Structures are given as C-alpha cells and as structure tokens.
Amino acid sequence: MSLILSIETATAVCSVSLHDSGTLIAHTALCMDRSHSEYLMPIIEALLNNSNCDKKSLAAIAISAGPGSYTGLRIGSAVGKGLCYGLDVPLISVCTLEAIAYGMRPFVDAGTLLCPAIDARRTAIYTLITDQVGQIKRPPHVALLDSQEYRDGLPNQPLLFFGDGVLKCKTFLIENKNIRFIEQVVPSAIQIGYLAFAKFQQQLWAGVPHYTPCYLSQFQEK
Predict the structure, then answer these.
(1) Can you identify the CATH homologous superfamily of domain 3-96+187-201?
(2) What is the pLDDT of residues 98-122, one digit of tens each?
(3) Which of 57, 130, 176, 214 is the most exposed place for a label (fewest CB within 10 A)?
C-alpha cells in the first residue's frame, strides 16, 4: 500500500486528493479565492477522516509545484513540507502545467498539441506545450500574449489552449485557425496524485529543507 496525499493550490481552487498505489481513493475541492490559508488543513483533515485514513499511514506528500499564484503555492508548499517533517515521509513536487495537461490528454485528437494556460496577470500566462504522450515541446514559461513574436512563434499545427487563462488567450489568439479553446479547466489534486505515484515509484523526491515552488516570475499578489 502506497498512500499519497496530494495538494493543489496553484489557482483559486484548493484541491486535495488521496491515492493508493496510483488509484484515486478520495478527492475534495473548494473554489474560493484567497481561502487556502484558512481551509487547506481542514480540507485535508476531513478527507483523511472520511477515508478512514490515519496520517501515519501516508507514504508521501505530493504538492503542485507551480507555476501559479505566489500566495497559493507558498501555502501549499508550507503545509506539504510541514506534513513531511511531522510524518517523516518524502515530498514529491509535480509541475502544475504538466498535471493539467495530463488530465486533458485522453480527450484530444492525434496530432494536437496541448497548451495549458494559467493566468499570470495583465497580458501574460504561464504555459507549456506538450503532446499526447507527455513529451514536452516547450517547457514551462511566461508567455506574453500581446507579443507578435510569441504569436508568430507558435507551432503550425493544431493547438488546444485550456485553463483559467484561456479567456485571455481568446482575446489575442482567436484569429489563429489552428487553435481551439476550452474553458473551465482548472488544476486538480487528482492529476497531481497520478503523476506523483510515477515519481514515487522512481523515488524522485523533492528535498524538503530547501524546496521552493516554481514561481517563474516575480511576486505578484493574487
């Protein structure tokens, strides 16, 4: 039995899941901006209690590594690291963008590239480009949507943009006929847990004492 508690706090959605050897056991999500510091620990406690899971039976803690909200990532990191210290279990970090893309991969046509988009304020998004099997074509980066250079540099093949930054993407990319958009896709601890189990099997731990999330850009309160 390999129980992994996963935490997702990169956006306004506060999400927690419990997986056993890669199989989803329980999941809870709360969409309430600026609520992570108040509700994250109660959500974790409720999820474990409802699953009849003792904290001491956890094999690892997985956290959403970002990019995303500075405040949300900082809270998720602090809680995750605190649990690791208290339970003496390893910490696993999972790229938020890769996790969102992982959840979308089964639903796209062959040859379509996935472009998860997280709002980075103003005309920017956090994004990456990956294919259906998870091969990263462009690693996580800040994309300035009002930049002609960025728009001209997009691959000339079908692209799917999705995430909480997609409405902004529509404003600047709607004329590109290669691009489709899907709204109301948010990060979830469910996908964090699936990817975390693969890392757990390979013992790809994050160093708890020195771990910091992937912020990508300078702090902007969100």
Answers:
(1) ATPase, nucleotide binding domain (3.30.420.40)
(2) 999 999 999 998 899 999 999 998 9
(3) 57
